[in-house]
Structures are given as C-alpha cells and as structure tokens.
Amino acid sequence: MTKTHAGTTLPPGQQLIDFFPRFGRRLDQPPPTVPAQPTVIFGGVLPTPIEIAVDELVDTGRRDLDADFHCVAGWSVTGLHWEGAAFADVYRRYVAPAVPAGTTVTHVTVRGLDGEHFVAQLDDLLADDVLLADRLGGRPLDGAHGAPLRLVNPAQYGYANIKHVCRIDVHAGPPAAGPQALLDRLLESHPRARVWEEERHGTVPGRLIRPIYRVIKSFLLSAAVRRGEAGHHSNANNG
Fold it and tell me: Is 231 part of a structural domain of the chain?
C-alpha cells in the first residue's frame, strides 16, 4: 500500500495528487444547467414518486464528512471536506415509509442531470459515511464537482459518486441494464466499485486493468492542468 503525506494509506493502484480536477466522460461539455429550484425525485418501486427540494433534503440531519476521493483511473485526493445529509437519514425519513408492504429494497439507481447513473446496493449506501452533499470545502458545490447535489461514498470509486443528483429510484432487485455504448462495455463498471477491493471493472481484475486506466489518467490529468485546475488545494471547491 502507498503511504500518503498524511501518514494514511491509499487503496491499491492509486496515486496521490494535490488538486481535485473535474473528471468524467463528458469533459467536452459544460456542466449541466441547474434549475433555479432544484429537486430530487424518488421513484422506482414507490407507488407515487416523491419530489423533494434539495434545500429541504440536505437539512435532514446535516453533517460534515472529511474523506478521501479515489478515481477509478488511479488518482486520489485526500482530506476533502463535504457537507450534506447522510443518505441513510434521507432514506429512512422519506423513502422507507413509502415502500409498499412486503417489498424489500435491495438496489438503488442514482441519476444525475448530466445523464450519468450508477446502480448501487442499498447496503452500500446506508453506510455511515455516505452523504448527499451540497457543499465542498466550506462552499456550495460548483458545476465541476456536482452542483446542486452529489452522492459521496468514500468506499467506492468516483464513478459511483454521481454528480448533479436529480433522481433516485429504489428497486426490489437488480434493475435491467439498458443498451451500452462500446466504451461503456469495454470499461464495464463493477457493481460494487469498492476501492479497497480494487473493483475497477466488472469482469477484469483491477490490477490487470490498471495500465489502461493509467493512460486515461495521464491524458485527462494533463488536460486538467491545461484548464488551470492544478495548483489549488485539494480541499477547495475548484473547477
């Protein structure tokens, strides 16, 4: 394992960097436009969808979280300071009472305004350190890092930490997968995406897929430097 400057360890295959870049598959596009009054819709097995304002949602047991962030491409930033509501508190307050009797929720699809989504196991999202965050580094989230609301799960790779959250669907089993683009099939996401187990890929062991991600990391981090994102403290909400 790799020692960080803080004396902690990084998950296998990760490299520490000193800034928090905007990263993802849609870097050729600007962040999505956020509605003036953003909301999150909860659906799936719920008989009637529930729509809740983001401001109301994050006031459900607001808390702080200091955590590291690990990208599947192989870079990590440490000591990010997030603020928001615990996913578990939101789930138990708004969602669990609306689940039909006799239905057991096992999976959750989190969707963003940018079209990205991730299907998580409910147990993973009910961990104590999973947030629906609206603030980073003491300031409201900006477009680069997920405004107006971001799922933060330090135990999972960044692709599971969906930005711009706008809808959360709960399911009584794994939902059927839709059609995938070629790149999505090649870089097949792991259903758990746990960083300490190096679950980078759905079928290929993490250590074997590292060289591919190393190339992606080098290219995209170089692009981030050209955009002027380097040189900021990693705990800042920079672009």
Answer: no
Residue whose C-alpha is closest to residue 31's, from 116, 128, 156: 116
* pLDDT tens, position by position, 115-154: 999 999 999 999 999 999 999 999 999 998 999 999 999 9
Residue 49 within a domain: yes
Write down the residue that tokens 């350190």 correspond to.
129
Count of domains in the chain? 1
CATH of the domain at 146: 3.90.420.10
Q: Indicate left, alpha or beta for 201 from its phi (over 0: left) and psi (-120 to 50: alpha).
A: beta
Q: What is the 3-state secondary structure (H, E, C) of 38-73?
A: CEEEEEECCCCCEEEEHHHHHCCCEEEEEEEEECCC
Kindly state whether residue 220 falls inside one of the protein's structural domains: yes
Residue 75's pLDDT band, with cuts at 50, 70 and 90, is very high
**For 235, phi and psi rounded to 5 degrees?**
-85, 0
Range of the domain at 106: 2-226
pTM passes above 0.90: no
